[in-house]
Amino acid sequence: MNTLLAKTPPKPLPSPRTATSVGAELRSLHTAGELDLPLPGDGRTAARWVALAAFGRRDLTLARLAEGHADAVAILAEAGRSPATGALYGVWAAKSGGTGAAWDGGALTGTVRFCSGLSLLDRALVAAGDRLVEVDLADPGVRRHPDTWQAVGMDASDSGDVVFDGVPGTLVGPPGWYVHRPGFALGGAGVAAVWLGGAAGLLDDVLAYLRERGGADEHQLAHVGAMHTALSCADAVLAQAAAGDVDALVAGTCRAAAERSAVEVLERALKVTGPTPACRDRRFAQRVADLPVYVRQHHAERDLAALGRTVLGPA
């Protein structure tokens, strides 16, 4: 059976990790070519999602930055462009709470929230209205506000707000191209592979906890069986999707399946372990904090309603 989850989990990052250590690992992976993933939609989507799931299973903050870089490279390729040599990229497109960037025809202005890799990345693709703009993050008009990120979850992702004050940039694609291109759905489904990997990493930790204690009782085993089933179902959905054409319906289904598996794993993990590892094992506690923050890129019932509308079709 096709699967995105390897039988042997990747070695996690040393704990405790920091934005500095995650950034150093990201840069090392980039230098070694391990962020050069197959482009989505070219017949090797499954291999791309396997790599993204492995990043998520290893560490979600590392995966967040790796996925953002890989997504930016794929977007540039779809536009017929190449990334700057040696540069680490991100895609900053949030429009939370009425914020967002604007393009006045020559420069980028405005505030963008939830920008990961504030001090770690070299360049970013920034959504500004119906335009996508590539910017050099070394420009003095890029003002970073890491203090706006107060969450414990994903704390090492170097995230926060960015204020653009007349920053020059290069347009990528025509107006409206970013969200209407074929690769938009593929990119959204790729994020689901990271969520799946993050949930699998939490189950890895639960299993390690039980093995260290010498086994499990029937109630713990029931939860483990349910977590395994939830992950296997989402894994199968994504593996099947990666083998075919990914449109908005397929991408939405992948995201919903990965989100549901992550929520179930989170709910059951602490029922298996009790509070001990959440209080005494920093890596376990960090996974429990990271996963719900990252997976909330899925907008719960709002995204499910959009999926249902697509399934129902026109009245």
Automatic annotation (TrEMBL):
Family classification: Belongs to the acyl-CoA dehydrogenase family.
Name of the protein: Acyl-CoA dehydrogenase family protein
Alphabetical keyword list: FAD, Flavoprotein, Oxidoreductase
Organism of origin: Amycolatopsis mongoliensis
GO molecular function, a single term: oxidoreductase activity, acting on the CH-CH group of donors
Acyl-CoA dehydrogenase/oxidase C-terminal domain span: 176-293
Enzyme class per UniProt: oxidoreductase
Top-level division of the source organism's lineage: Bacteria
Enzyme Commission identifier(s): 1.-.-.-
Region called Disordered, residue ranges: 1-21
Pfam family, one: Acyl-CoA_dh_1
InterPro entries assigned to the protein according to its UniProt record, in alphabetical order: Acyl-CoA_Oxase/DH_mid-dom_sf (IPR046373), AcylCo_DH-like_C (IPR036250), AcylCo_DH/oxidase_C (IPR009075), AcylCoA_DH/oxidase_NM_dom_sf (IPR009100)
